[in-house]
Each structure stands twice: as structure tokens, then as C-alpha cells.
Design goal:
Shape: globular
Helix content: 55-70%
Order of helices and strands: HHHHHH
Number of strands: 0
Radius of gyration: 16 Å
Length: about 120
């Protein structure tokens, strides 16, 4: 097996994500999928932190595909990302921001608990 096949063990949703059909006018989704592909194929098998992050990003992008409300939040968050010119690895910064957007979404989604009051 090649390294790419071994890395794809950590990304069980890879084929679904790559084959996701989005509208031609949806450039954000196309860019997000391209970032995902580039990140996955630039990983090293010896980088355990990177492999763990790849697994997390894989599940985040799958949630992006399946959950319309999360997709809206992710698009809004992606448009607000700023990257300094002095950064060496832009892809890592963007992936870290994708994870932060997901964490904020999860935190906001779990806080909306309504307690009904019995009269």
C-alpha cells in the first residue's frame, strides 16, 4: 500500500467528500474541498498530530456536506478568516480555523437548551 492509501484510513469519508456535487456558483465549497484534498495529501504517516487532525477535519467536512445550518455557519466563518503575510504554512492556518469554526458551532448548538416551565 502506498502512503496515500494508509493516510486515507484516517479519513473514512474521503470519497464522499471528493465526490460531493455542489453548485457551480458555490466557490466556497469548491475551495474547501480543495483545501481538504491538499491537506490530506501533504500529510506524513509519522505525524500523529497531523493524522489526528486529518481525521477531525474529515468529520467536519462531512458534517459540512450533510448539515445545511452548519454549512451556512462555516461559509460565514471562512469569509472572516485572515492570514498574515508572514505565515509560512497558510494551509495549516486555514485548517486550524476550520476546526475553530466547528468548535464554536458545537458550543453554540449545545447551549440552546430550552427549559419548559410547567404552570
Amino acid at each position: 500500500m502506498t502512503d496515500n492509501n494508509n493516510i486515507l484510513k484516517y479519513c473514512p469519508n474521503y470519497n464522499k467528500i471528493i465526490n460531493f456535487e455542489f453548485l457551480e456558483s458555490d466557490r466556497i465549497s469548491a475551495t474547501l474541498v480543495n483545501f481538504y484534498k491538499e491537506y490530506i495529501y501533504n500529510l506524513e504517516l509519522t505525524d500523529t498530530e497531523g493524522l489526528q487532525k486529518a481525521h477531525e477535519v474529515d468529520s467536519i467536512i462531512m458534517k459540512y456536506i450533510n448539515d445545511y445550518i452548519f454549512r451556512k455557519e462555516m461559509k460565514k466563518g471562512l469569509l472572516q478568516i485572515t492570514v498574515k503575510q508572514s505565515v509560512d504554512n497558510i494551509l495549516k492556518v486555514i485548517i486550524d480555523n476550520i476546526i475553530k469554526i466547528f468548535e464554536r458551532y458545537q458550543e453554540g448548538a449545545t447551549r440552546k437548551i430550552y427549559i419548559s416551565r410547567w404552570i
